[in-house]
Design a protein that fits this description.
Blueprint: E1 26-31, E2 58-60, E3 66-68, E4 71-78, E5 81-86, H1 100-111, E6 126-133, E7 136-141, H2 148-151, H3 162-168, E8 182-188, E9 192-197, E10 210-215, H4 219-227, E11 233-235, H5 242-246, E12 251-256, E13 262-267, H6 277-285, H7 289-296, E14 301-303, H8 325-334, E15 341-346, H9 354-366, E16 370-375, H10 379-385, E17 394-399, H11 407-415, H12 427-436, H13 442-459, E18 462-468, E19 470-475, E20 478-479, E21 494-495
Helix pairs in contact: 6-8, 12-13
C-alpha cells in the first residue's frame, strides 16, 4: 500500500494596504565568527549567511512545521521513493532556470565519494535521484527513510545552479548564486559579506535592500558597535553583557530558550586512555555542570545528559551526570590510572564563554589527577582540524539538530563510526543508529533513540555539557525574533527608518 504524505501550498490572498510604514534600506549584522566559504554543499560552519542566498525544496515556518519552499508538494510513492513537485517559473540569481535537473545535480555533487563533502552524512540514505520531468523529481532511498522531506529542508540540500557551478568550479564557494532572497555583492573572507536584495525573488522583493554581515570576534566590540549604531543586530550576545543591553532604552535582548547548540567535549575513543569507558565516565564525573551553567553562563544554558535537544523528535530526558570527583578517582584507579595521565585538550572561544568553561573543566580534570595540556586554537584553524581528525584527543565542539529538529541529525554525525565529525567507534551504538535510518514507524524510531541515549549514558561517547540558549541583541528599530532552528531569514526582518 502506498503511503501518501502530501504537503500542498495554501492560497495566498492579496489585500490592499492602507498605510505602508517607512523602512530603512540597510541592515548590518555583527557575528562572532567570520565566513570562510559559502558553498552550501561543503559547509564547515553554520549556514546562517548562506541560508539567505539559497532555498531548499522544503522549508519550516515559525512554528517549525515543514512547509513548501521550492517544492510545491511531496509524496511518498512507496517506502523507498519520494516524489517532489517543483515550483514553476523560479530562476537563480544569474537567470539560470530552476528545474528538476538542478535538484539532481545538487544532491549528486554532495553524494559523490570523490568530493569528500563534510555534509554528506545528512543525505547518505539517498540511493539515487531521478528526473521525471522538468518540474518533477523522485528521490530513491537505500531503505525506508522517514526523514527524507526533513533532509530536504536544510543544507546540504540548498539548491545550486548546475551550469554556473560547473563554470565556476572551486570559485563557487566565493561567488555563490542561489534562488534566495539575497545575492552576494561583496565577500571578503574572514571579514564581511555584503548582500543585495534579489528583485526577482519568487516570494517578492525583500523589504531590506542591503545586508552586511560583519565579523566582530571580540564580544565587547560587538556590543559597543550595537550601542554606537554601527550595527543593528548582534548574533551571539555574551551572557555577561546581556544586562548591559537590557538596561539600554534603545536596545533589546532576544532569547530563545534551548535554541542554541549542545556544547560537548569530543573524545577520541579509539586510542588509550579514552578507549576505556571507565576513563570516559571518570572525566564526566569530574565536571560540575550545574555550577558552570549558573556561574559562568549566568543561567543562559541548561545542563543536560543527552546530545538530543528538547525540540528534537526522539528526545529523552536523561539525568544530568552527577559531580562526583571521588568516584571519578576510583574509576581511574580501576582502569589502571591511579595517578591519572596527561592528555591534550582543545577548547575554543566560539561559544558562550566557552574558553572560560574549558579552563574550569581543565582545573576539574586536574583535581582527579588528569593533567590536560590546554590549547585554545583560532577557530579558522580548528574548523579545518576537526573534520580532518587532527584535533586533540579531548576537544570542544557544539552540535545540534538545527534545522532538522530530529535526533538523527543531533547524534548520528557525531556518534557513528566513520562520520566526518565523529571520533566515536562503539559497535552497539552503530547498530542502533543504523536501525533508526530504516525505521518508518515514529513510535519505533522514538524507542530506538531512547535506547541510544540510554546506551550513551553508560558508554559516554562524548562528554555532554549543556545546551545554550540563543542570545541576540538588537536595536529597537529592528523587527526580529529568534527561531529554534537558529535560522536568521532577513526576508522576514524589518528595520524602521
Amino acid at each position: 500500500m502506498k503511503h501518501q504524505i502530501t504537503a500542498v501550498v495554501a492560497a495566498v490572498c492579496a489585500g490592499v494596504v492602507a498605510a505602508v510604514p517607512a523602512y530603512a534600506g540597510q541592515l548590518v549584522i555583527a557575528r562572532p565568527v567570520s565566513v570562510s566559504a559559502m558553498d552550501p554543499g561543503f559547509l564547515r560552519e553554520p549556514a546562517t549567511v548562506v541560508d539567505n542566498v539559497f532555498d531548499t525544496m522544503v522549508g519550516r515556518d515559525q512554528a517549525m512545521k515543514l512547509v513548501p519552499d521550492l517544492a510545491l508538494s511531496w509524496t511518498s510513492v512507496d517506502d523507498q521513493t519520494w516524489e517532489f513537485r517543483l515550483r514553476p517559473d523560479v530562476r537563480f540569481q544569474n537567470g539560470e532556470k530552476f528545474t528538476a535537473d538542478a535538484v539532481k545535480f545538487t544532491l549528486e555533487r554532495v553524494l559523490d565519494p570523490a568530493a569528500h563533502a563534510p555534509t554528506i552524512s545528512y543525505i547518505t540514505t539517498i540511493a539515487g535521484v531521478d528526473v521525471v520531468d522538468p518540474l518533477t523529481v523522485r528521490i530513491r532511498t537505500k531503505g525506508p527513510d522517514p526523514l527524507l522531506p526533513t533532509r530536504m529542508s536544510r543544507y546540504p540540500a540548498y539548491i545550486v545552479p548546475p551550469d554556473y557551478v560547473k563554470q565556476q568550479g572551486e570559485a563557487f564557494a566565493r561567488k555563490p548564486i542561489g534562488t534566495g532572497a539575497y545575492r552576494i555583492t561583496e565577500f571578503v573572507p574572514d571579514d564581511h559579506v555584503t548582500m543585495q536584495a534579489n528583485p526577482g525573488y519568487w516570494r517578492g522583493k525583500p523589504v531590506i535592500d542591503t545586508v552586511v554581515w560583519r565579523a566582530i570576534p571580540e564580544p565587547t566590540a560587538r556590543v559597543a558597535a550595537l550601542i554606537a549604531g554601527e550595527v543593528q543586530l548582534v548574533e551571539g550576545l555574551p551572557v555577561d553583557l546581556a544586562q548591559t543591553v537590557s538596561g539600554n532604552p534603545d536596545l533589546d535582548v532576544v532569547k530563545v530558550a534551548h535554541g542554541g547548540l549542545i556544547i560537548y567535549l569530543g573524545l577520541k575513543t579509539q586510542g588509550k586512555p579514552l578507549d576505556d569507558a571507565r576513563v570516559r565516565k571518570a572525566l564526566s564525573l569530574a565536571i560540575d555542570r550545574t555550577t558552570i551553567v549558573e556561574q559562568i553562563l549566568k543561567g543562559f544554558a541548561s545542563a543536560t545528559g543527552t546530545q538530543v535537544g528538547p525540540f528534537d523528535f526522539g528526545y529523552k530526558q536523561e539525568p544530568v551526570p552527577p559531580y562526583d570527583p571521588a568516584q571519578a578517582r576510583s574509576l581511574l584507579a580501576a582502569a589502571g590510572y591511579p595517578n591519572g595521565f596527561s592528555i591534550r585538550m582543545q577548547v575554543v572561544s566560539r561559544y558562550i564563554n566557552s574558553a572560560a568553561v574549558g579552563q574550569v573543566i581543565a582545573q576539574e580534570f586536574a583535581a582527579i589527577g588528569v593533567k590536560p595540556e590546554l590549547e585554545v586554537p583560532e577557530w579558522s584553524v580548528y574548523a579545518q582540524q576537526v573534520p580532518a581528525g587532527k584535533q586533540a584527543p579531548i576537544y570542544m565542539l557544539a552540535w545540534g539538530s538545527t534545522q532538522t529538529l530530529d535526533a538523527d541529525a543531533a547524534i548520528f554525525p557525531i556518534f557513528h563510526t566513520g562520520e566526518p565529525y565523529s571520533t566515536v567507534s562503539i559497535p552497539a551504538l552503530d547498530t542502533l543508529l543504523d536501525q533508526t535510518r530504516h525505521t518508518i514507524d515514529p513510535a519505533a524510531r522514538a524507542a530506538l533513540f531512547a535506547k541510544i541515549q540510554d546506551l550513551a549514558v553508560d558508554e559516554v561517547p562524548t562528554l555532554t555539557l549543556y545546551q545554550e540558549d540563543s542570545l541576540y541583541a538588537k536595536r529597537k528599530t529592528v523587527t526580529f525574533t529568534g527561531r529554534p532552528d537558529a535560522r536568521m531569514p532577513v526576508f522576514d526582518m524589518r528595520v524602521a527608518d
